[in-house]
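re: the backbone from monday

yeah here it is again, tokenized this time
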């Protein structure tokens, strides 16, 4: 459950690191590793988008994340609104 304060909207993101190869398609993210695949899906009563992000270090002191991608969702929660997000992984 995410609740935005009455005074301002909230930019919300849920993220997960994976070594699988992600592909955003048809209201889900398909994660593939070798001959295996799994779908990441989310539900909410607010509009959200599926996203992928690089896991490459941004600073010289950060450890490398070779072969890792960040996947997840992003949503704008209107001021004063509460909403639930349900994220599932399924075959």
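seq for it, each position gets an aa:
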């Amino acid at each position: 459950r995410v609740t935005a304060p009455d005074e301002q909207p909230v930019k919300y993101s849920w993220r997960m690191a994976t070594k699988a190869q992600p592909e955003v398609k048809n209201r889900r993210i398909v994660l593939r590793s070798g001959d295996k695949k799994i779908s990441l899906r989310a539900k909410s009563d607010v509009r959200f988008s599926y996203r992928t992000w690089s896991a490459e270090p941004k600073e010289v002191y950060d450890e490398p994340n070779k072969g890792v991608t960040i996947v997840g969702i992003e949503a704008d929660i209107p001021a004063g609104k509460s909403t639930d997000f349900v994220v599932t992984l399924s075959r």
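The chain is about 0% helix and 55% strand. The radius of gyration is 15 Å.
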